[in-house]
Amino acid sequence: MNQSAYIPRFIQDRIEEALTDTPVVLIHGPRQSGKTTLARHVGQEKGFAYYSFDDVGVRSAAQDDPAGFVAGLPERVILDEIQRVPELFSTIKLAVDRDRRPGRFILTGSANILMIPRVSDSLAGRMEIIRLHPLSRCEILGRRSGFIDDLFAGAGMMHQADRLGDEIAEIVAAGGYPDALSRSNERRRTGWYSEYVETIAQRDIKDLARIREIEVLPQIVALAAAQTAQLFNLAELAGPFRLSRPTIGDYVTLLEQVFLIHRLPSWHSNRLSRLIKAPKLHVGDTGVACAVLNHSVAALREDRTLLGHLLETFVVQELRRQASWGEDRVQFHHFRTKEGAEVDAVLERAGRRIAGVEVKLSGTVVAKDFRGLKKLREAVGSRFTAGVVLYDGEATIPFGEGLFAVPLSRLWTGKS
After folding, report:
1. In the chain, where does the domain assigned CATH 3.40.50.300 lie?
2. Predicted structure pTM score
3. Are 125 and 303 in contact (CB under 8 A)?
4. Is the N end or the C end of the chain the one with fewer CB atoms within 10 Å?
5. CATH number of 12-131: 3.30.450.20, 3.40.50.300, 3.55.50.30, 3.40.50.2000?
6. At what angle do helices 12-19 and 35-44 cross, to 10 degrees?
């Protein structure tokens, strides 16, 4: 992949739509996921000026006199890395209250402001927040997928494909960060991801909180990567460190705030009492996970257990990336009973429709692989649209009403 090439982002339509009726549009997501490139691409033809708070001079001017800084801005402006000057949010609020014209500000941020109530509340009703993930597999290949729409339609799952085999490890290890994907070989890409995690710890997290033991943060990311797609267990994460569990818990929250890790909540229902309520832990990107674990593609192919966990994380994150540009909001959970029946991803859409996705590394599927999906279908009744087991096979196989084994590549390709 050419480093200088612009990769179209499928969420661009949502941003442009928001600018037609909302004064402030915030694009937030992990650093280096493409926010600045996308914001400038959208803003260029609309005449937006650009200021980055990574620039010391610009940041100093905004911090010294927030009101004067905002008053002197052009009519339409991009403010990049806004989390570095959080005091600007209240000043922008005042500016918007004086002039409610839509499409005045595009903000970008490398921290989740929804986890900073005093900041997000200041622009409530005046700002639309749009999450930009790293590149999805669909965007890398340059083609949209109708997988989620078909899943909720309960149809269109039929698909023929070649088995991916060894390519699965390559896809998982590549991740979705544009700069990493532009590197010429695996060693260069792994080096980029490793430096990326160190940079986040040394810069972005320092902007959010005062941390004495900053050096432990990359180690926590590595432990989280080793436990990805498993139930979140704070005691296990805290075990290797001479820090209290509450302190490690605070560090985990910070890592979640900068999008390095993600806790997937459990799905629950009054109709089923024996459900596991703990969230599942996922790394934000599998390329980052492989780098911090120092796992090459070859090593990943040998370690089938780790590859299975990372493949589950890859699928969960790919689904979330695809959902981010969809018309309807999708909520994500996992499902697990105390008897061990589970579904890796439970998707809930408008109208309370529910679908389930289970992930299997194997090239074969048997009836017991649908145990969790059947339990979920039983719990939600008529709200259930479809359940699929994604596997490394060649054909879609029906396994009863609304249940299908589907080739993994169907996730990022159209119908065949």
Report:
1. 12-131
2. 0.94
3. no
4. C
5. 3.40.50.300
6. 50
